[in-house]
Amino acid sequence: MKKILLVDDDQNLCILLSSYLVSFNFSVDSVNNIHNALAYIRNDCPDLVISDIMMQDLNGYDLIKFLKLNNLYIHIPIIFLTAKGMTSDRIKGYNLGCNAYLTKPFDPKELIAIIYNIFNQIQLLQKTVLVSNYNFVSDPNLLKSFKLTRREKSVLTLVLQGYMNKEIAISLDVSKRNVEKYVSRLLNKTNTRNRIELIRLFLGYS
Question: Which residues are modified to 4-aspartylphosphate (predicted)?
Fold first, then answer.
């Protein structure tokens, strides 16, 4: 289940929008300011953020700047849902890296379409990257010889790129515990003792 974080100081909007998104099988939490949003994201990284721009103290533009400066959170897609409808506002949002910009009042069906499109694009990109990254392996026959499952190959590819378990979990949309399980399987199947030996085996390091 995809997790969405709403960031808006309009409590009524958050209640209504949360209920609507939950009806589409999304898990939804909401906060009323940027400080709380950043604290939430550090503790429980969401799959997508929907944020207002105009809030007291820090605003939505500040939020996206913070996220894009941190490699752990740079991948989180952001939708701006705001009353700031000037062309210059939208341009600023897109230049900062938002994935979509909706002006209030909005059609909730359009928001759902945007969310599905974002998740579909991410999934397509992940598949493309995982396939292309098998070229990292120095001897492609190794992949066949160990009879790795598709998920094990996906985890291996990210391990070879230096990703840690938490980052792999976020990238593949699985729990950290499942990633640990797959890494253990990789070590057992390849008869390696740790991640370093695993990387050396597949990348051909001596």
Answer: 52
Question: 109 exposed, middle or buried (CB, 10 Å; 0-12, 13-18, 19+)?
Answer: exposed
Contact 115, 47 (CB under 8 A): no
Domain of residue 175 covers 137-203
Between residues 96 and 199, the one the model is more confident about: 96
Structure tokens at 80: 């701006």
Segment 172-194 shows an average pLDDT of 90
Which CATH number do you get for residue 188? 1.10.10.10
Cα 190 from Cα 181, distance rounded (Å):
14
The residue behind tokens 């230049």 is 95
Residue 130, in any domain of the structure: no
User: Does the residue 57 lie in any domain?
Assistant: yes
Structural domain total, the chain = 2
